[in-house]
Amino acid sequence: MSSVLIISGSPSRTSKTERIGEHIAQRIAASGRSAEHLRVRTLPADALLGADTRAPAIAEAIGKVAEADGVVLATPTYKAAYSGLLKAFLDLLPQFGFAGKAVLPLATGGTVAHVLAIDYALRPVVHSLGARHAVQSFFLLDKHISVVDDQLSVHPDSAEPLADVIEQFTKALDGVPHSTVLGRTA
User: Fold this and answer.
1) Tens digit of pLDDT for each residue in 82-135?
2) DSSP assignment, residue 132?
3) Which domain holds residue 105?
4) Predicted TM-score (pTM) of this structure
5) Cα–Cα distance measured from residue 72 to residue 172, given in angstroms and rounded to the nearest whole number
6) How many domains in the chain?
7) CB-based contacts of 57: which residues, under 8 Å, 6+ apart?
8) With contact defined as beta carbons under 8 Å apart, do 34 and 3 qualify?
9) What is the domain-level CATH number for residue 138?
10) Phi, psi (5° rounding) for residue 155?
11) Quick check: is 183 in a domain?
C-alpha cells in the first residue's frame, strides 16, 4: 500500500487551500492508500524559519516526507508565487528529498493570471528535489471553492479536472507509465 503526504502551505486557519488538501487526502484514502495531511502552519515558527532540522516537530515532518511514496503540494498563490511558508519548509528538505516519489503540485488563487506560478516557480523546485514523477499541475480558482456549514464544495468547472488530476497522481503512485497516465499508450 502506498502512502501519500499532502503538504499544505497556507498560513490561514480558514484556508480553502488547506480544505482542498484535506479533500485530496480523503479521496486518496478512499482508494485504499494511506494519506496524511501536514499543515506547515502548525510547525513551530522559530524552528521552521531558523532551519532547525533537529527540532522534534521539524524532524518528524521531514521524516514524513522521506517515508511517503507520493507528495501533494497544496499552496495558495501570493504575488504570483507559491507561499513563503511552503518555501521555508521545502528549503529544509535534503537535496533529493523527493527522490523516488510522485509529486502533485497544486495551487489556488484569485485569477487565472497566476496559473503559471506553478510551472515557473513550484515545478522547478519539485524537479530539483529529485521527484521521480511530477504529474500535471493543477490550479483552482478561489471562486470555484466554497465552504458552507463546514462542507467543501468545488464548482463543476474544477471538480472534474481535479478528479482527473488526482487519478493521474494515483496512477503515477502505482508506477503506470506517463503515456498511459495522459490517456495515451506508447
Assistant:
1) 999 999 999 999 999 999 999 999 999 988 888 888 889 999 999 999 998 999
2) S
3) 3-174
4) 0.90
5) 12
6) 1
7) 43, 44, 47
8) yes
9) 3.40.50.360
10) -55, 145
11) no
Average pLDDT in the chain: 90
pLDDT(31) > 60: yes
Other CB atoms within 10 A of residue 103 CB: 26
pLDDT at residue number 79:
85
User: What's the grid cell of residue 166?
Assistant: 488526482
Residues 6+ positions from 34 with CB-CB distance below 8 Å: 1, 2, 3, 4
The three cell numbers of residue 73 are 503540494
Helices of type H across 5-155: 16-30, 45-49, 56-67, 84-90, 116-117, 123-128
Show Cβ contacts of residue 85 under 8 Å, excluding neighbours closer than 6 positions.
9, 10, 11, 40, 41, 48
Q: Are strands 145-148 and 151-154 parallel, antiparallel or unpaired?
A: antiparallel
Residue 176 has pLDDT above 80, yes or no: no
**Do 16 and 142 contact (CB within 8 A), yes or no?**
yes
